[in-house]
Amino acid sequence: xxxxxxxxxxxxxxxxxxxxxxxxxxxxxxxxxxxxxxxxxxxxxxxxxxxxxxxxxxxxxxxxxxxxxxxxxxxxxxxxxxxxxxxxxxxxxxxxxxxxxxxxxxxxxxxxxxxxxxxxxxxxxxxxxxxxxxxxxxxxxxxxxxxxxxxxxxxxxxxxxxxxxxxxxxxxxxxxxxxxxxxxxxxxxxxxxxxxxxxxxxxxxxxxxxxxxxxxxxxxx
Length: 221
Description:
Layout: H1 2-16, E1 27-30, E2 35-38, E3 40-46, E4 52-57, E5 64-68, E6 102-105, H2 111-123, E7 128-130, H3 146-150, E8 153-158, H4 160-164, H5 166-177, E9 182-186, E10 201-203, H6 208-219
Parallel strand pairs: 6-7, 6-8, 8-9, 9-10
Antiparallel strand pairs: 1-2, 3-4, 4-5
């Protein structure tokens, strides 16, 4: 009797307590295969205008596929702001970053120092991109934030916290891999990573005005 009850409970347990969610299927058109397919590994992303989209792989050719529009995958994702920094517009009336925009790369702990630096760079006539930490978890088309692709130069706000921040590291590594200049604004005692040790570095902890003037000379060259 007890064995039968135990067996029955095991059968119920195996079916009733299976909470694995059903996978979400997203269809898209594969330009290589020239047909509509169901994506492998679909994941939500956002375009530079802040519009939802989905990226994945074609199960037939393994190529990347893309579909505009919101799906069930976006339900738990916050919508980021569109990337609009400059007044300049291209021929298609699409917002774009100003030429030679400076990307200020910082960790949340250094927000005050980063924002003050951005204000001073802007006052000096430079176009500055200061990323919004509240939407830094958003996934973008192309794998990186549009500003990282379009900004010409980076100012890395360096501190021990910045060195330990994976997102800060990924940002400057992207610039390094694409051979775009990186300037270091040191706001605390920390050695720069080996890969960018030779980048121009200015110590804002010793003399802020002097460090800012020296940095502006390099950025304005």
